[in-house]
Write a structure and sequence with these properties.
The protein is α+β, with helices and mostly antiparallel strands and about 900 residues long. It contains 32 helices and 23 strands. A six-stranded mixed beta sheet has the order 1-2-6-3-5-4, with helices on both faces.
């Protein structure tokens, strides 16, 4: 569960007409207020047969008792442990069967609970949320178990130096108010928290007259409203407790210095800003966008070499917000020049104002960005929730109106009021070495645990009926596929849900196989040069041209474009110019080369890199090409001619796929792409960019010290002999859902988190390549729990090999994978990346439907056989990043 959200600018230009308690006249939008006070908004979105439900309770960490900052967060966790009429195990099975996202966010003023599921499961989602609103089963024993998991979450976040600074930033910006602490909570307060306290918190605040229910997706609004009335209508309203007051004091300047395990150092300068319910919120959004523009001075620090990167970012709560200017410096570098330049840029913005052209461009891009929110069923729900629950608006359309009213004078006035050094909170995070990896000898030895009972969960009738029949859902995708004369694969999926187009592209390359001897890092330097413009436009001119059409573009081996449909052709021309005619200027090469050398020097000492390299060395043969990595020496040894030669060798149209999703005619898209990219030609035979097969790895263990971490991050990895086109992959994927899919319903979550509180989360992943593949299990836990958690992972895998999974587990796993098919079509991003991945892997574009047919036919013995043959539970290489494991 996420403990806080960052909605930087979420809204939609959708009109919402009508008054509380009445249906609107818009066929796609319905709004009502039930007699018990529950506000309901239903927005029809036919992008895919998917629905999102978001219950927004207007309570969060603002309303917690003194001394218990994580009470709202703790209750959020307990909302997943059952209600009267719905046990924890039934809730877990229901959420797993639905196949989508079932999660929650705790913020300062709002706590959200959301389902993203196939539209056919709307009734189940509403019934579940209604039961949870009515009451919870918060027993002392259940809270004791969940407390272990939530304390692991605290350890994880407090192991991040950036999060540590974030907590100090809030304390300084919002001293004396509820915003002075994060919603996360502390281990000490959780130790004092009782189940009775959490029951009281729920009974006080989780009431229909303190909630807003947002539903988006492919649903019938009138029928959906009737279902909401049936499920929620008889829940009684309650008298709400008094809410806290906010008395914001002047911010006192402060400088924070912290060590970090990152490969680079960071400088932050933070300020208090208007909140989402403030009259100046729209101005704050435009100010943040303008300050963070690629044409602005902060970003320019990364382009002229005075920093590795520069930028500006904001986070807003209902009553106040915070924003930070960001500067990145290399490991071993001096942060003071970066800090001084950032201070100078901010002072100039305060005294001289911001370029009106940047302000107008920021306005256009922010307003245009509202239209892109329609391109995701879940994003649409988030936009409405943010407007109503967080901003207190009557409709999201008010956000667009507020942005249109912003003037350069208002932005400059806010900059003058905000960027005052007497009220700035500054942080300098300096990289420090934690030490070299240490070979382990079992981390405390093997331990034995009784396996979790494999008993089927009996679902209530209303849920059992919904999941009784399994079938492969029909895909809504009908992509047009073309191969252009120069070899480009072009795939177009028309969608009319918004007046936008999104493009996703990739060139198949592999630096390890294609870079010259001692030229490691050449691809990274090349990618760093694309933002410097084209042969005909410098970087500022290119960005200005993009701003003029409210487009976002990135070029390189992976490239993208987001553009209003009216400017599709213009956007393609700019993208093609950058992709095919990059400037690659000598001055920029010197800057990027120096920056990259500094980044690499820090990376080689960072715990994350040492962990990744240690795993690779343990699993791959000596001198394997995948072990190649940049060094400061290899980067400084590069020349611009080598970079240009690598570009000419590897950027080939016959290795390129372009996927276009949005409001565009396929024939028109083909014509536009052919005109822009048609002159691009390939020379010579197509290269092979796939790694060769490797023998099985031997088991091993090692620990990478990380002095900034209090929790261990554990990866258990091994090579496997199943590749991406092997039919056995279907059985492994199905078994993976039994082990790690469906949250509490999965075996690993049940055994590691639910019953023992050893971890906060656990992940499993098959990474199947053309010739070589890996399987990884990852989790985070306290040092004294690593041995126990690792032993359970091994035990659960052996159980998969020794006995067939139960009928209920098999059916649930199939349901998850089958229902994920429409979920993979519920946003432009999901559609585009899915089609791109299938093309890159030379799979048919209907491969997800084909996979569904395989999953439907698989048997439990076939899953057992696949795990027995291809997974080696005793052959993991276990990497522990953090304190040395105990026990």
């Amino acid at each position: 569960m996420k403990n806080h959200v960052k909605y930087l600018a979420a809204a939609l230009a959708l009109a919402l007409v009508g008054t509380a308690g009445a249906k609107t006249s818009d066929a796609d939008v319905t709004r009502a207020t039930l007699d018990n006070g529950l506000r309901v908004v239903i927005v029809r979105d036919a992008l895919a047969p998917v629905v999102t439900t978001e219950v927004n309770y207007l309570v969060g960490s603002d309303e917690v008792p003194d001394g218990f900052p994580g009470s709202a967060h703790a209750l959020e966790h307990m909302m997943f442990r059952g209600s009267p009429g719905l046990t924890k195990d039934q809730l877990a099975a229901i959420s797993a069967n639905m196949g989508g996202s079932f999660n929650a966010d705790t913020t300062q003023g709002v706590t959200q609970y959301y389902f993203v599921a196939p539209s056919q499961d709307l009734d189940v989602a509403l019934h579940t949320e209604a039961l949870r609103m009515r009451g919870l089963d918060i027993a002392d024993a259940e809270w004791a178990k969940e407390r272990g998991a939530i304390e692991q979450e605290v350890s994880r976040d407090l192991s991040s130096p950036d999060f540590k600074f974030y907590t100090q930033l809030l304390a300084q910006l919002f001293d004396g108010t509820p915003y002075a602490h994060t919603p996360l909570g502390t281990r000490a307060s959780f130790d004092k928290t009782s189940a009775a306290m959490l029951r009281t918190f729920h009974d006080s605040w989780y009431t229909p007259n303190n909630a807003i229910l947002v539903i988006t997706g492919d649903v019938d609004p009138a029928a959906t409203l009737a279902k909401v009335q049936a499920q929620f209508g008889d829940i009684p309203r309650k008298q709400l407790p008094a809410r806290p007051t906010f008395d914001f004091r002047p911010v006192q300047a402060k400088t924070v210095k912290l060590p970090t395990d990152s490969p680079y150092g960071s400088v932050y300068i933070g300020y208090r800003m208007p909140g989402m319910q403030d009259k100046d919120y729209a101005t704050a959004l435009v100010l943040s966008e303008a300050m963070g523009s690629q044409r602005a001075a902060l970003f320019g620090m990364g382009m002229d070499g005075s920093a590795l990167y520069g930028g500006f970012s904001g986070e807003w709560m209902p009553r106040a917000g915070g924003a930070v200017a960001i500067g990145i410096f290399p490991r071993g570098g001096n942060p003071q020049p970066v800090l001084a330049k950032m201070q100078s840029i901010l002072a100039e913005a305060a005294t001289k104002g911001i370029d009106p052209a940047l302000v107008e461009a920021a306005k256009r891009k922010t307003i245009a960005g509202l239209e892109f929110k329609k391109n995701s069923v879940e994003g649409l729900a988030n936009a409405w929730s943010q407007a109503l629950a967080f901003r207190g608006l009557d409709s999201p359309d008010a956000m667009k109106q507020a942005l249109e009213a912003v003037t350069p004078d208002a932005v400059n006035a806010l900059a003058r009021a905000t960027f005052d050094p007497a009220h700035a909170v500054t942080a300098i995070l300096t990289p420090e070495s934690s030490g070299k990896p240490v070979e382990g000898k079992g981390f405390g030895g093997a331990e034995s645990f009784a396996s979790s009972p494999d008993k089927p969960v009996t679902l209530p009738d209303w849920a059992a009926q919904a999941f009784a029949k399994l079938e492969v859902p029909p895909s809504t995708l009908k992509p047009m596929s073309y191969t252009l004369s120069n070899g480009i694969r072009l795939i177009v999926q028309p969608e009319s849900i918004s007046d936008t187009v999104e493009l996703f592209g990739r060139i198949k390359t592999n630096q390890d196989l294609q870079a010259g001897e001692d030229d490691e890092g050449v691809a990274d330097v090349l990618d760093g040069l694309f933002p410097f413009g084209t042969a005909s436009m410098d970087r500022l001119q290119l960005q200005q041209a993009l701003d003029a059409i409210s487009a976002k573009e990135s070029a390189g081996t992976s490239f993208s474009l987001s553009v209003p449909s009216a400017h599709f052709a213009d956007g393609i021309v700019l993208l093609a110019d950058n992709e095919l005619h990059p400037a690659l200027p000598a001055q920029a090469f010197a800057v990027v080369q120096n920056q990259m050398a500094g980044m690499v020097a820090g990376q080689l000492q960072s715990p994350d890199f040492l962990t990744e390299l240690g795993l690779a060395k343990a699993m791959l043969p000596a001198n394997d090409l995948q072990l190649r990595h940049p060094t400061p020496q290899s980067v400084t040894g590069l020349t611009l001619d080598k970079v240009k030669s690598y570009y000419a060798q590897t950027f080939r149209p016959d290795m390129t796929t372009i996927v276009i999703v949005g409001k565009v005619d396929p024939a028109q898209a083909k014509q536009v792409v052919e005109q822009a990219f048609g002159a691009w030609k390939a020379e010579g035979a197509k290269p092979d960019v796939d790694y060769v097969a490797v023998p099985p790895n031997k088991p091993g263990q090692f620990n990478v010290p990380d002095t900034s971490a209090s929790q261990d991050s554990v990866q258990m990895a091994q090579t496997i002999d199943v590749t991406r086109n092997d039919p056995t992959r279907y059985a492994l994927n199905l078994g993976d859902q039994v082990l790690g899919g469906g949250f509490y319903a999965s075996r690993l979550y049940h055994d590691l988190r639910d019953t023992r509180g050893l971890v906060y989360n656990v992940g499993t992943k098959f990474d199947l390549d053309r010739y070589r593949s890996t399987y990884t299990v990852s989790f985070g836990s306290d040092p004294d729990k690593v041995a126990a958690a690792s032993a359970i992972v091994v035990q659960d895998l052996k159980q998969m090999q020794q006995a067939p999974v139960s009928d209920s587990d098999l059916k649930r796993a199939k349901g998850i994978l089958l229902r994920q098919i429409p979920l993979g079509e519920s946003s432009f991003g999901a559609i585009g990346n899915q089609l791109l991945m299938l093309s890159i892997e030379d799979k048919p574009l209907d491969a997800m439907t084909i996979a569904g047919q395989h999953y439907l036919k698989l048997t439990a013995p076939e899953v057992q056989q696949a795990y027995a043959k291809h997974v080696r539970p005793d052959a993991f290489v276990t990497a522990v990043k953090g304190p040395a494991p105990k026990g």
